[in-house]
Write a structure and sequence with these properties.
This protein is α/β, with parallel strands linked by helices. The protein has helices at 18-31, 45-48, 87-90, 108-123, 139-151, 200-207, 216-221, 225-228, 232-237, 274-285, 307-312, 314-319, 332-344, 357-366, 382-389, 399-404, 410-415, 428-442, 445-457, 463-477; strands at 2-6, 36-42, 57-61, 69-76, 79-85, 134-138, 159-163, 171-172, 193-194, 197-199, 210-213, 242-244, 294-301, 323-330, 349-353, 369-372, 392-396, 421-423. Helices cover 39% and strands 19% of the residues. The structure holds adenosine-5'-diphosphate.
Length: 478
C-alpha cells in the first residue's frame, strides 16, 4: 500500500513542534508493516538546499498562485520526498510560517493553498505517476488538499485528515475564496465556508473519509465545546469516522543508550550514569549542585502549555526545595516572567530562551522530572521522551498526557505501575501539589528509581500506533 503524506513540517528537515516529529517518524514505522510513505513538503530553503541541484522536475507549473513552480522528488534522511519548489512562496528566510521574529507571513493562506493544490494534483495522478492508495493530510496547512480533491473532476484516492492541534485551524476572510480556484459551490456550509470566512482545517474535516487525532482522550475532548474550538459540532457529526491514535516517538533519535547529545549515555540498568547529565544541566542553567529534585520544562512558551500557570508558581516550586531548568521560546511576556523568576531564585531556577534540540535531549537525560502543565494537549511528546529517559513526567490530566502517564497514587505505587504524576489542568495549586507529591516520592530513593524504571519500560515506540494506522488505511482502501 502506498500513502501520500502531506505536511508542512517533517523532522529533521523542518520542525516547529510535534507535527514534524510525527511526520518524520511514522514513515519508517509504517515501512516495517509493508506500507510505503511519500511525504509531500513545501520547498523551504533548508529542504531545497539538501536536494541534488539537478533534481528533475516531475511537473512544472507556469503559474501556481502567482509564480512559476516545480514538483521535484528526492530521498533525504531516509524519507521519500515530493517537494513543491515555488520560490515566490517558500524561498524566504525565517521559519516555516513566518519571519522567525514572531510574525506570520500575511500570505500563508496562499502559500498553503498552493501547496495543497499541488498535493491534490499529485494525489489524483494529474501530475506525474505517483497516485497513492491513500492521501493523508496533516493539519490545516495540508487540509485544503482534500477539498481540492473533493471538487476536482478526477477520481481521487480515499483520504485521512489528521488533527495534531485543533487550536490551529487556518481561518481566513471570505475575500480569499475567489483566489483559491475552487468552484463557487465549495463556499458552502458543507464545504470550506466557516463562520462567514474560509476554514482550511474545517474544509479538510468535511472532505476526509476518516479523521484522526493523536490520542484517544483528545478525540473525545474535541467533541465538547470546551476543547472543540468551534469545530465540535462538525466533529460530532462526523464522530463515526473519528479515531484517536496515540503518537509514538522515534526511538532511534531518542535513545538514552546512544544519544550523542548526552554527556553520558545510560540505560535503566545504569541510572547512576544520569549523574553526569545532571551536572551538565546544572552548569548550563547556572543551578546549585545539590541532591534536591531537578525539574525541567521543554516547551513552547504559550498559554496552551500552561506556561503562565508555571510562571505564577515559581516561588512556590522553589519554596518546596526543588530546582527548575526551563528551555523554551515563544510568548515574550512569558519569557520575561520566567526570566524574572530565575532572577529571584538564582541557583534554584534557570531559564534558557530559545529552541535547542540538543539541549532538550540533555534535559531529558539529566533532569529528574519534566513538568507539563498544559491546558490542553492533543498528544504531547515530551512526556514520552521523559518516560524513555527516566525523566519522570509531571503532567496535567488532559489529552494524550492523561493517556500515557500512570499517576503515582497509593494504589499505583504499591502495585509498582506508577510512571509519573498527574494533576488537574489549569490549576496552579494542583501543579504545586503534584510537585509536593513528587518531592515526597523523590526522598525515597528506592521508590523513585522503581518509578523511573517502570517509565522506561513503557512502550512509547510507534509500533502499536503504526498498526492502528495500517488498519485504518486498509479499511479505507478496501
Ligand atoms: P507541540 O507540538 O504542541 O509544541 P509536543 O510535545 O507534541 O508539543 O512536541 C514538542 C516538540 O518540540 C518536542 O520534540 C520538544 O522536545 C520540542 N521542543 C519544544 N520546545 C523546544 C525548545 N525550546 N527547544 C528544543 N525543543 C523543543
Amino acid at each position: 500500500m502506498k500513502i501520500l503524506s502531506v505536511a508542512s513540517e517533517v523532522f529533521p528537515l523542518i520542525k516547529t513542534g510535534g507535527l514534524a516529529d510525527v511526520t518524520g517518524a511514522l514513515p519508517e514505522a509504517l515501512a516495517a508493516l509493508g506500507v510505503s510513505v511519500r511525504t509531500m513538503l513545501p520547498g523551504y530553503p533548508s529542504v531545497l538546499a539538501r536536494l541534488p541541484k539537478k533534481t528533475k522536475a516531475l511537473h512544472s507549473y507556469a503559474d501556481l498562485f502567482g509564480g512559476k513552480a516545480r514538483i521535484v522528488a528526492g530521498t533525504l534522511d531516509g524519507l521519500d520526498l515530493i517537494v513543491l519548489d515555488a520560490p515566490h512562496l517558500f524561498d524566504r528566510p525565517g521559519g516555516a510560517y513566518g519571519d522567525g521574529g514572531g510574525a506570520d507571513w500575511p500570505d500563508n493562506w496562499r502559500r498553503f493553498a498552493a501547496f495543497s493544490r499541488a498535493a491534490a494534483d499529485v494525489a489524483s495522478g494529474a501530475v506525474g505517476d505517483l497516485r497513492p492508495d491513500i492521501v493523508h493530510a496533516h493539519d490545516w496547512q495540508a487540509a485544503l488538499t482534500l477539498a481540492y480533491l473533493r471538487y476536482d473532476e478526477r477520481p481521487s484516492p480515499p483520504s485521512v485528515m489528521t488533527v495534531h492541534n485543533l487550536a490551529f485551524q487556518g481561518q481566513f476572510p471570505a475575500s480569499i475564496f475567489p483566489e483559491l480556484g475552487l468552484p463557487p459551490q465549495a463556499m458552502a456550509l458543507d464545504g470550506v465556508e466557516y463562520f462567514g470566512g474560509v476554514g482550511f482545517l474545517k474544509a479538510g474535516l468535511q472532505a476526509a473519509q476518516a479523521i484522526t487525532t493523536v490520542s484517544p482522550t483528545y478525540a473525545q475532548e474535541i467533541r465538547t465545546p470546551e476543547f472543540g474550538m468551534g469545530l465540535d459540532g462538525l466533529i460530532n457529526l462526523r464522530a463515526e469516522h473519528l479515531h484517536g491514535i496515540l503518537n509514538g516517538i522515534d526511538t532511534g533519535q531518542w535513545d538514552p543508550q546512544t544519544d550523542p547529545h548526552l554527556a553520558e549515555t545510560f540505560s535503566a540498568k545504569s541510572l547512576k550514569a544520569r549523574g553526569k547529565n545532571r551536572r551538565a544541566v546544572e552548569q548550563r542553567f547556572g543551578l546549585d549542585a545539590d541532591a534536591s529534585p531537578l525539574l525541567c520544562v521543554v516547551s513552547r512558551l504559550t498559554w496552551q502549555k500552561g506556561m503562565d500557570i508555571l510562571a505564577a508558581e515559581l516561588d512556590a516550586i522553589a519554596g518546596l526545595g526543588a530546582r527548575l531548568a526551563v528551555l523554551g521560546s515563544g510568548d515574550q511576556g512569558l519569557e520575561g516572567a520566567l526570566l524574572a523568576g530565575a532572577a529571584r531564585h538564582r541557583g534554584r531556577i534557570g531559564v534558557v530562551v530559545g529552541y535547542d534540540e540538543g539541549l532538550s535531549h540533555l534535559l531529558q537525560g539529566g533532569a529528574d522530572a519534566i513538568l507539563i502543565p498544559s491546558r490542553f494537549e492533543p498528544c504531547g511528546l515530551t512526556q514520552l521522551y521523559g518516560l524513555r529517559y527516566g525523566c519522570v513526567p509531571v503532567v496535567a490530566r488532559t489529552g494524550g498526557l492523561a493517556d500515557t502517564v500512570i499517576d503515582a497514587n497509593h494504589a499505583a505505587l504499591s502495585a509498582g505501575v506508577a510512571t509519573g504524576f498527574q494533576f488537574a489542568p489549569g490549576s496552579g495549586d494542583a501543579l504545586v501539589g503534584a510537585v509536593q507529591r513528587l518531592c515526597g516520592v523523590f526522598a525515597d530513593r528506592g521508590a523513585w528509581t522503581a518509578m523511573q524504571k517502570q517509565g522506561m519500560k513503557a512502550d512509547v515506540s510507534w509500533q502499536a500506533s503504526a498498526r492502528d494506522y495500517v488498519a485504518l488505511f486498509r479499511s479505507l482502501a478496501a
